């Protein structure tokens, strides 16, 4: 009796953790490199979900796959557009950027509920079916989520540490002025960073939306969880985000299975409050100047 | 009565400096650009924390204390890159300092605005009281900074490069102002990177270079100190004539 | 002696203020507002009630963001907590409306401090997202059916959680005219207090924190203490708005915690102009009335054929907010006032 609950909790925690890690990494990247807390991060998720869904229901036969491709491309491009049109022009005003991205999140939420509808929808898994281990059913979708996320996380890690663009990104994250003196086009790097962030959120959506639902408001929990994870892991620390993602995912899963789902909802805010009081720089963040 | 002691080490900008300043003194801190003078000020005023070492003020250990608490003990600084509340009137700029817990104790007996006006008058800016700092020339902004510091009723005043960017006339103005502050009983600790400014002003100079202490004494002595000469000449003659 | 002196001061101040264009305009608007109940039309009275309540809400946000520079994305916290506290104490504890209102606002502030204190102690962007996070979680929490059942078992006869929220909250007075005037009075008092605080020495301290927090600290100001104070003041008035809103809608439900309401506060204050309390009134006016017009248009079958649901108010407002922040960051109040004043001069032949 106990054992399969434990297994379920582990599985679910791992899956959620992978998705959270993708989302948090993108969010953390944008903050670390550009100092921007992108309120529209959740919007990337929503945009993908709805393009994915629309293609699926409107295009016969290959709608699912076409939806994936179009959603990924469109969302990534929108990430760049957001930088160009909303963030870059408001660089001097931190307040302005935050408000404008916040407004954009609402814009998207309303847009999709008008353009499509506001009812909950379900999407099928990429590969339907499951296998059973120790009495617990493991959906193939879960395996896909795990593999794709870990692969992507590893790729991004490699990208940032080894490739030239990655090094430029790190340079801008450390010191934008010095980076531009070294000939790095800071603007373009910031745009790329936003696009990467959007791309990661988009992949997360494609993988996870079939497990949960399609609805206009799903962006907000994405933002909430991303922020909470990044506060835990450390604003600006990429591996902090990944570790934080799994800590929070397992905590939520644990509370869901063994305590009470009510408390699971409270975890993000408890994490935020406790971290801000005890260790604002997060588990792995750099020390801030007073 | 008591004095100001600093010994700290370890921030790569400042390496094991120790010195004391006594109440009522008038001391200069010199060193070429990048020597670490502003860092010392940052450490003393609580904007940064030393990696190791202690800072004592008036018998208290203030190492790592938050800036506003330090100010309310009577230790205040001005900044090399002039800071002001750009869109408030000069009067309001001074008012803010007068509203600190330490400043308020004195200011409220006179009325905050009245007290601030007196300060503005003492730094020679009273006719511009209703103007915002954005439109003022550099020399006036330096005076404003000193005025803001005065609002907190300081015992010890740290002036970070108060002469940089000033014309000769403006520098003379500031020099007179600082002198009169000192004669009013404020302990003054000034930095500069050209000796000439400080030579005629202070009776004692501390010299540093690359984060380290190199000399301490009357200006004439320090100016002829071999190590000091090397430090300055090595930098291409930013050296003052005695 | 001192009281007489201050009153005399105030009379001069008032006379000077009325003399200005702005003063005259404000008085005109206030008179117009007082006359609304005379229309006898409950729909119109209702809309203006909402407008006045939202003005308080927007002004409270503006106070924090415009004067102190602290941006909150979770003002819905105050709206919701005060709403629930007010509804609960009126319906289940039989408190009079004004006690419930003040109590609701105070409780709202206490809840706000849970995230406010940790966030404001730090330098950094924590308040905005922290408050948003808290409001989202409160939304989920109050929506939970399981908590509703738990509550009813622990405190039988009372409701707290659950999708329905608390209903059947009676109005301030059975006479809509009186209710309206009371709300009007509360609004005036709130706006006067907030404006006065902004112009006081306390306001000077707040503005110094906004303009240069490190500089304020270097001037001996305990910025954390004052940021928290401003947060509490802002939260209190937002809570008053929340309590009034609940009374106005005869109930409260988890919807009050939606990010949407926090967004409303931001739009109204930003459109009007940050750091101008009267700008919040202008913003609230535009928001409430434009929103209503858009809603009516949306109901009209001809329009909805042409535009499909795109006249939806929040959709339009999010676009407006983006455009305004992009192109007219300081809000519309000053330009509007200038144009009105030019028009006025023109009419008077100057």
List keywords for this structure.
heterotrimer; B: 242 residues; alpha/beta; Rossmann fold; six-stranded mixed sheet; four-stranded antiparallel sheet; 10 strands; globular; disordered C terminus; C: 350 residues; mainly alpha; ABC transporter involved in vitamin B12 uptake, BtuC; 16 helices; 0% strand
Protein described:
- The complex is a heterotrimer of chains A (290), B (242) and C (350).
- Chain A is mainly α.
- In chain A, 75% of the residues lie in helices and 3% in strands.
- Chain A has helices at 2-34, 41-58, 63-87, 94-115, 140-162, 164-174, 176-181, 186-208, 218-233, 238-259, 261-278, and strands at 130-133, 136-139.
- The radius of gyration of chain A is 19 Å and the shape is globular.
- In chain B, the strands form 2 sheets. A 6-stranded mixed beta sheet of chain B has the order 6-7-8-3-9-10, with helices on both faces. In chain B, strands 2-1-4-5 form a 4-stranded antiparallel beta sheet, with no helix packed on it.
- In chain B, a hairpin with a 2-residue loop joins strand 4 and strand 5 (60-61).
- The radius of gyration of chain B is 18 Å and the shape is globular.
- The model of chain B is unreliable at 236-242 (pLDDT under 50).
- Chain C is an all-alpha fold and 350 residues long.
- Chain C has a single domain (47-347), classed as ABC transporter involved in vitamin B12 uptake, BtuC.
- Chain C is built from 16 helices and no strands.
- Chain C has helices spanning 2-19, 21-35, 42-68, 76-91, 97-120, 126-143, 145-154, 176-199, 201-211, 213-218, 223-248, 259-272, 277-299, 301-307, 313-327, 333-347.
- In chain C, helix 4 (76-91) crosses helix 11 (223-248) and helix 8 packs across helix 9 (201-211).
- The longest helix of chain C is centred in the N-terminal third of the chain and has 27 residues, at 42-68.
- The radius of gyration of chain C is 21 Å and the shape is globular.
- The mean pLDDT of chain C is 86.
- Classes of the chains: A mainly alpha (290), B alpha/beta (242), C mainly alpha (350).
- At the A-C interface, helix 4, helix 9 and helix 11 of A face helix 5, helix 6, helix 12 and helix 15 of C.
């Amino acid at each position: 009796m106990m054992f399969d609950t434990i297994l379920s909790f582990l599985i679910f925690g791992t899956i959620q953790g992978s998705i959270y890690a993708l989302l948090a990494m993108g969010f953390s990247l944008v903050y670390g490199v550009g100092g921007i807390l992108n309120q529209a991060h959740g919007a990337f998720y929503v945009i993908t979900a709805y393009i994915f869904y629309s293609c699926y229901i409107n295009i016969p036969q290959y709608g699912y796959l076409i939806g994936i491709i179009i959603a990924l491309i469109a969302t990534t491009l929108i990430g760049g557009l957001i930088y160009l049109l909303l963030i870059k022009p408001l660089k001097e005003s931190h307040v302005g950027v935050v408000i404008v991205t916040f407004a954009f999140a609402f814009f998207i939420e309303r847009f999709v509920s008008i353009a499509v509808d506001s009812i909950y929808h379900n999407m099928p898994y990429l590969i339907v079916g499951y296998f059973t281990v120790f009495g617990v059913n493991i959906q193939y979708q879960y395996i896909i989520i795990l593999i794709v996320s870990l692969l992507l996380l590893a790729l991004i890690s490699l990208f940032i540490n080894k490739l030239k663009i990655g090094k430029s990104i790190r340079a801008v994250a450390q010191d934008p002025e010095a980076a531009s003196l070294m000939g790095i086009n800071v603007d373009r790097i910031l745009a790329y960073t936003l696009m990467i962030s959007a791309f990661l959120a988009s992949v997360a959506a494609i993988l996870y939306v079939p497990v949960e639902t399609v609805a206009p408001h799903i962006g907000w929990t994405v933002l909430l969880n991303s922020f909470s994870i990044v506060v835990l892991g450390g604003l600006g620390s990429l591996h902090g985000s990944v570790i934080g993602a799994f800590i929070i995912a397992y905590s939520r899963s644990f509370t869901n299975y063994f305590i009470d789902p009510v408390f699971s909802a409270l975890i993000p805010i408890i994490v935020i409050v406790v971290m801000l009081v005890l260790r604002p720089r997060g588990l792995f963040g750099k020390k801030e100047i007073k | 009565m008591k004095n100001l002691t600093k010994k700290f080490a370890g921030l790569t900008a400042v390496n094991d400096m120790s010195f004391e300043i006594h109440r009522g003194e008038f001391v200069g801190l010199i060193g070429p650009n990048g020597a670490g003078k502003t860092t010392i000020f940052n450490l003393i005023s609580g904007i940064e924390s030393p990696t190791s070492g202690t800072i004592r003020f008036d018998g208290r250990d203030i190492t790592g204390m938050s800036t506003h608490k330090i100010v309310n003990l009577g230790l205040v600084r001005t900044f090399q890159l002039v800071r002001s509340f750009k869109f408030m009137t000069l009067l309001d700029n001074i008012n803010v300092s007068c509203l600190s817990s330490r400043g308020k104790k004195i200011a409220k007996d006179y009325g905050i605005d009245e007290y601030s006006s007196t300060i503005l008058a003492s730094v020679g800016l009273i006719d511009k009281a209703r103007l915002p700092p954005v439109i003022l020339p550099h020399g006036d902004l330096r005076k404003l900074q000193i005025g803001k510091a005065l609002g907190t009723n300081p015992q010890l005043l740290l002036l970070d490069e108060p002469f940089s960017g000033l014309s000769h006339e403006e520098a003379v103005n500031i020099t007179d102002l600082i002198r009169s502050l000192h004669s009013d009983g404020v302990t003054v600790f000034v930095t500069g990177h050209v000796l000439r400014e400080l030579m005629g002003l202070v009776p004692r100079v501390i010299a540093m270079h690359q984060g380290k202490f190199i000399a301490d004494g009357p200006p004439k002595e320090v100016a002829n100190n071999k190590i000091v000469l090397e430090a300055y000449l090595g930098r291409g003659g930013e050296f003052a004539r005695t | 002696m001192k009281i007489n002196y201050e009153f005399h001061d105030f009379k001069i101040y008032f006379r000077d203020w009325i003399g200005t264009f702005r003063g005259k305009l404000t008085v005109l608007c206030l008179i117009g507002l007082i006359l609304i109940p005379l229309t006898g039309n409950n729909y119109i009275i209702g809309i203006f009630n909402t407008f006045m309540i939202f003005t308080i809400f927007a002004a409270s946000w503006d106070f924090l963001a415009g004067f102190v520079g602290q941006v909150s994305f979770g003002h819905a916290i105050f709206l919701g907590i005060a709403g629930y506290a007010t509804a609960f104490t009126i319906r289940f504890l039989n408190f009079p409306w004004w006690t419930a209102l003040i109590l609701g606002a105070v409780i709202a502030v206490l809840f706000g401090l849970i995230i406010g204190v940790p966030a404001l102690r730090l330098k950094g962007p924590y308040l905005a997202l922290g408050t948003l996070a808290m409001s989202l979680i409160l939304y989920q929490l109050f929506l939970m059916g399981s908590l509703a059942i738990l509550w009813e078992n622990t405190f039988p006869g009372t409701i707290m959680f659950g999708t329905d929220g608390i209903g059947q909250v009676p109005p301030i007075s059975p006479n809509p005219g009186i209710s309206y005037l009371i709300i009007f009075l509360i609004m005036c008092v709130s706006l006067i207090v907030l404006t006065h605080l902004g112009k006081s020495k306390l306001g000077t301290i707040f503005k110094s924190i906004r303009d240069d927090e490190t500089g304020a600290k270097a001037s001996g100001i305990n910025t954390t203490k004052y940021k928290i104070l401003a947060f509490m003041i802002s939260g209190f008035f937002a809570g008053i708005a929340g309590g009034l809103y609940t009374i106005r809608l005869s109930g409260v439900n988890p919807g009050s915690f939606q990010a949407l309401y926090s967004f409303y506060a931001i739009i109204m204050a930003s459109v009007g102009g940050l750091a101008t309390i009267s700008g919040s009134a202008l913003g609230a006016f535009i928001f409430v009335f434009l929103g209503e017009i858009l809603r009516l248009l949306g109901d009209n079958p001809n329009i909805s054929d042409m535009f499909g649901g795109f006249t939806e108010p929040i959709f339009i407002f999010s676009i407006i907010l983006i455009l305004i922040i992009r192109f007219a960051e300081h809000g519309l109040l000053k330009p509007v006032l200038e144009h009105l004043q030019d028009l006025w001069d023109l009419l008077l032949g100057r």
